[in-house]
Amino acid sequence: MINIFEKHQPTEMYQIVNERGEYNEAALNDLNLNNELLQNMHYWMLKGRIMDQRFLKLHRQGRIGTYGPFSGQEAAQVGSALALSKTDWVVPSYRESLVSMIHGTSLKQFLSYLKGYFGGNRPPEDAKLFPIQVIIAGQVPHAVGCAWASKLKKEDSVTTVYFGDGATSQGDFHEGLNFAAVYNVPIVFFCQNNQWAISTPFEKQTTSETIAQKAIAYGMKGVRVDGNDVLACYQVAKEAIEKARKGEGPTLIEAVTYRRESHTTADDWTKYRSQEDVDAWVKKDPIVRFERFLMNKGLLTTERKEEMVKQFEEEIEKAVKDFEGTPLPPAHETFDYVYEKPHPQLLKQREEFKNRLER
Amino acid sequence: MRKLTMIEAIREAMEQEMEKDQNVIILGEDVGVNGGVFRATDGLQKKFGEDRVFDTPLAESGIIGTAVGLAMNGMRPIAEIQFLGFIYQTMDQICAQAARMRYRSGGRFTVPMVIRSPFSGNVRSPELHSDSLEALFMHSPGLKVVIPSNPYDAKGLLISAIREEDPVLFFEPMKLYRSSREEVPEEPYEIPIGKASVIKEGEDATIATYGGTVPMVLKTAQAFQEKGINLEVIDLRTISPIDTEAIKESVDKTGRLMIVHEAVKTGGVGAEIATIVSEECLYSLAAPIVRVTGYDTPYPVQTVEDDWLPNVERITEGVENLLSYQ
Ligand SMILES: Cc1ncc(C[n+]2csc(CCOP(=O)(O)OP(=O)(O)O)c2C)c(N)n1
Ligand SMILES: [Mg+2]
């Protein structure tokens, strides 16, 4: 244990591997990661990037609906998600597709969400995963309640909730943090500060220097981590999760990263930010950095990487093709999940709807 | 006359009112540099400065709550809620605060604020981006609710809304933002809030509607016209206060009424209109009232929405039912 929470101020940025792939030897030794985990981190980050770029292309071809890309944020998502156990809960927003996949959502399920199929936002039965939240910060109090329930039921489960920098302006964020601290629930608040909330830059969102420092006001630990450094994200998340598991309180993590693409496929970043802004962050790319590190350690070769890219592209292509062959679920299912049992008026509407579509 | 889309007409109304009155300001998410996600406020920050067009932090309750205070102290804020589905975040500030400030303070304070918000479906948007929530506000005394269906009305109604002394909710059907270009006068003009417009005259039956369903209702009525059936179409334009007179006058003439809206059926605008008719002119009716609306479920996913919403097929069937009753 490095014990980040004792040694670092919330305003200091914690980092293990820098932009050039150089690393903090002591911190790394302390982490004591096996090669398999390192390769798994790389596997998910690279797969995530390829998937994300592929989805953008599918949108341009009119094959999926609005899509919110996460390119640039792979380290924050993979580092934190791999620090979780399967028995831990994940409560995502719309930006954490990669976290949801690591925690159990299939590519097929995600495609059905993107294509607007009924049931597309139904998390798999065996995954401790909440559905994708569209309302900014709405999921934060839910996550606190979820963690609170684990505590009341005396279950060994920690909840991690994901949200963005913009979400920290909402009342739900502040109310959620306060409840979590008051009831000392086992939760980790994982904020991906990607510098932008659509067109609104971080400086216009808050005058706090950091998001991490907001934790102090609620009497909890806050830590700022380099969100493009997968090892640092993993380390910080791991310590926060273990702390929560031991009943030692909630944590607010601010992962400093960057949204490389537009907000969604309905947005155009050239309206509000400069190419220089983007270029400066592209230099800090999480995957390039980690690959340098792995290659230095002899854990990755260029040939191996090319193989992986090819394999992921094929896998995704196949999943998309397979999915496009599946029939739409019957439209009248839209009436089946409003209540446990539809009331008589609703049943009547369902019949009318179904008959009309079957004519 | 030059022609504008609805979004251009909305933008122009704000621009002209800001020129006329220094106290008119705009606040909302992404309304400044980005000019709004639909470009309704495009160029306005550039023209009027950062002290009149504000990119706010991401907090709807904060936007409306501060707009109430701004309005109570002499400003005339136009607040944008990026999509109507996010207005749930602000229910207290709208219904429990803005709506009753005049009443609470015995007339000492008013809240001359406009809340603009895009809504309505058929545009394949994500969850909570297409919901029609207008009926929630119809149920709050103190508020006015305006929903335009074309560029000309949009400009005149928005100007009236900005000049109003009471809070006005102004809901804009996204699918109509750029669907047509129509003649819009260059000079500012007002269209009175609370007045419906008969957009097609007829004597066989009345269809009352508003917002996103207006064009498809008109199209259906024209198809019936070719078969010799003359339908009267009323575009309500304001749903609170509702134009009781216009509804009564039309139903007295036609004896048949159908109501079309995207919002869910139960407790909706249609239910209110049907009650008004039963109170005001029940004996004019020759047939039961028909409603063609969204179903009583949450707004559905993209692959289901076109079947779930009113469409030409459903409206046609509704008219046939309405006329078949002898
Ligand atoms: C309550 C609410 N308000 C507004 C929106 C529209 N909206 C969607 S994403 C977004 C920006 C969110 O920024 P941030 O929290 O930083 O997350 P990011 O998109 O950067 O991951 C906005 C304003 C929404 N979905 N919900
Ligand atoms: Mg952000």
Number of separate structural domains of chain B: 2
Q: Within the CATH hierarchy, at the fold level, what is the topology of the largest domain in chain B?
A: Rossmann fold
Task: Give the averaged pLDDT of chain B, no decimals.
Answer: 98
CATH architecture designation of the largest domain in chain A = 3-Layer(aba) Sandwich
Protein name (chain B): 2-oxoisovalerate dehydrogenase
Keywords (chain B): Oxidoreductase, Thiamine pyrophosphate
Pfam families (chain B): Transket_pyr (PF02779), Transketolase_C (PF02780)
Domain Transketolase-like pyrimidine-binding (chain B): 4-179
Protein model, in words:
The complex is a heterodimer of chains A (359) and B (326). Helix content of chain A is 47%, strand content 9%. Chain A has 359 residues and is of the alpha/beta class. Chain A has two domains: 4-328, Thiamin diphosphate (ThDP)-binding fold, Pyr/PP domains (Rossmann fold); 330-359, no CATH class. In chain A, the strands form two sheets. Chain A has a six-stranded parallel β-sheet with strand order 1-7-8-4-3-2, with helices on both faces. The mean pLDDT of chain A is 95. Chain B is α/β, with parallel strands linked by helices and 326 residues long. In chain B, strand 13, helix 10 (269-280) and strand 14 (290-294) form a beta-alpha-beta unit. Chain B is globular. The termini of chain B are far apart. The chains are: A alpha/beta (359), B alpha/beta (326). Chains A and B meet through helix 15 of A and helix 11 and helix 12 of B. The structure holds thiamine diphosphate and magnesium ion. The site of magnesium ion has 6 residues of chain A, from strand 5.
